[in-house]
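Q: What residues go here?
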C-alpha cells in the first residue's frame, strides 16, 4: 500500500507542478507547493499500511469457551513444542498467577544489497554484498476469566529487525486458532482498527503551502501589473510625442497662413 501511495504522490506532484507554473512567477519555488497535495495523496495509503500493521501485531481480543487453566496450558504448549518457520520460541514468562505468557523467537536471514563503486556514472561498477541480519520477535499473551470463559489478548512486538515477522505471526495465530478455536470477538461486533490522524507536520505544511501559493499568485499579479503599467506608460508617452508633433505642425501652418495674409499671397 505504501508503494502505491508513493507512486500516486509522484504523479500528483508532477500534475500540480505543471498547473501551478501557470499561476506563479517562473523564478518562484512552486515545487514547494506541489509537495503538499502529493503528501495528502500518499497519506491514506500510508495510513492503510499502519492499520494493517496494527491489526496484525495487535489482533482483537477473543473470548473462548474454555477454562483459564486449560487455555493457559494449550498456549504454552504451542510455544514450547511447535516449530514456526523452522524456528522455536523461547518462553521466558509463564506466570499462572497473573495469567501472562511472554516469549520471543530469534532468527537470522541473509540480506543482499548492491553497492556502487567509481568516480562517476561513466566509471561506475556495481557489486552485490550479502550479510546476515538478526531478527527478534516478542509476543505477550494475557488471559482473563469472564463468566467461566477465557479472554485472550495477544500483542506482538518486533524487537530487532522485524523483516518476515508477518509470516511467523500468521503461522502462530493459525496454530492458536487450531488449538483453541476461532472464538468470538470480545470487545465489540465492529472490527477494531487504528485510525491515526494526519501528522502535525503535514497539517502545518499544508497551511504554509497555502500561504506560499497565495503569495506566489500575488507576486505573479504584481509582475503582470508592472508589465501592463509599463505598456500603458509607453503608449501615453507615444501619444504625448505625437501630440507635440501635431502641435508643432499646426503652429507652422498658422505662421504660414499669417505670412500669406500679410503679403497678399494666395
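A:
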Amino acid at each position: 500500500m505504501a508503494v502505491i501511495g508513493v507512486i500516486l504522490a509522484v504523479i500528483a506532484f508532477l500534475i500540480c507542478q505543471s498547473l501551478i507554473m501557470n499561476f506563479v512567477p517562473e523564478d518562484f519555488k512552486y515545487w514547494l507547493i506541489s509537495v503538499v497535495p502529493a503528501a495528502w495523496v500518499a497519506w491514506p495509503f500510508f495510513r492503510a499500511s499502519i492499520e494493517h500493521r496494527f491489526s496484525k501485531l495487535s489482533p482483537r481480543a477473543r473470548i473462548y469457551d474454555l477454562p483459564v487453566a486449560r487455555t493457559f496450558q494449550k498456549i504454552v504448549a504451542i510455544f514450547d513444542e511447535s516449530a514456526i518457520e523452522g524456528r522455536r520460541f523461547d518462553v521466558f514468562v509463564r506466570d499462572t498467577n497473573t495469567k501472562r505468557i511472554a516469549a520471543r523467537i530469534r532468527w537470522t536471514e541473509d540480506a543482499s544489497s548492491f553497492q556502487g563503486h567509481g568516480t562517476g556514472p561513466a566509471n561506475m561498477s556495481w557489486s552485490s554484498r550479502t550479510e546476515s541480519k538478526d531478527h527478534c520477535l516478542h509476543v505477550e499473551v494475557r488471559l482473563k476469566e469472564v463468566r467461566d470463559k477465557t479472554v485472550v489478548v495477544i500483542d506482538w512486538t518486533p524487537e530487532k529487525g522485524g523483516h518476515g515477522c508477518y509470516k511467523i505471526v500468521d503461522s502462530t495465530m493459525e496454530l492458536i486458532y487450531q488449538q483453541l478455536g476461532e472464538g468470538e470477538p470480545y470487545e465489540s461486533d465492529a472490527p477494531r482498527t487504528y485510525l491515526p490522524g494526519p501528522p502535525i507536520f503535514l497539517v502545518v505544511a499544508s497551511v504554509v503551502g497555502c500561504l506560499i501559493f497565495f503569495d506566489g499568485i500575488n507576486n505573479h499579479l504584481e509582475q503582470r501589473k508592472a508589465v501592463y503599467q509599463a505598456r500603458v506608460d509607453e503608449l501615453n508617452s507615444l501619444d504625448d510625442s505625437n501630440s507635440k508633433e501635431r502641435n508643432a505642425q499646426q503652429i507652422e501652418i498658422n505662421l504660414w497662413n499669417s505670412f500669406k495674409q500679410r503679403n497678399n499671397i494666395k
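A: Context that may help when evaluating the design: Helices lie at 2-20, 31-57, 68-81, 165-180, 200-262. Strands lie at 62-64, 83-84, 87-88, 90-95, 100-117, 125-146, 149-160, 184-185.
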